[in-house]
Amino acid sequence: MLLLFDIDGTLLLKASRDHAAALHAALKRVHGIDIPAGKVEAAGRTDLAIARTILTLAGVPAERIDDRVGDVRAVTCVEYARRCPADFSDHLAPQVAKVLDALDARDGLQLALVTGNLEPVARLKVDRAGIGHHFPKGQGAYGSDDEDRAALPALARARAGTLDEPYSRERTVVIGDTPRDIACARADGVHVIAVATGPYKPSELRGADAVCAHMGEVPAALAALDARPGLGAA
Fold it and tell me: pTM higher than 0.85 for the full model?
């Protein structure tokens, strides 16, 4: 199986404050705007989609947003590198380290990230939380790859596959904490396990193949999914 993990709300908890501050700082530096009052929904979205919403609310024309997207991406990463703590391990969700160690030790499993974070931001988070070694570089998909979260699982499968064929949909599982994680998995026709460790209740995650209260329940959910007819063999 190819296991595609979300970061915020799934692997890490309450790890978005400095990230949001970095994005806001980048938008101010690149576009010279004041951040509009009011909360912009971020859960399950890509960094650049969030940036587009903020800029649109601030009255920035769509053409200018598109023209400066590369600058926003680059400056956000610089701003986040300035803010990210050297030790991020206190943001690990319960049992994450233990579960990742166990899954990574099993034959036949590949672990990667599928996250709306820009890749350098994502890498800093998992590396400084002490779990980056579970997620090989060159694998997974990030908010820097596509503004549309729904496009990311297919990109991750392409990177995990061969030159001629992407990794099988039937053997791919997204693991996340929001309805958008579920939606991005369904858009690519892959499986999805939701963990109710983010801002959504289990009742709001019912579209997943399985809903877990915490990461410690994920291995059992994977085993149940793997035992389904047609999924037991790679």
Answer: yes
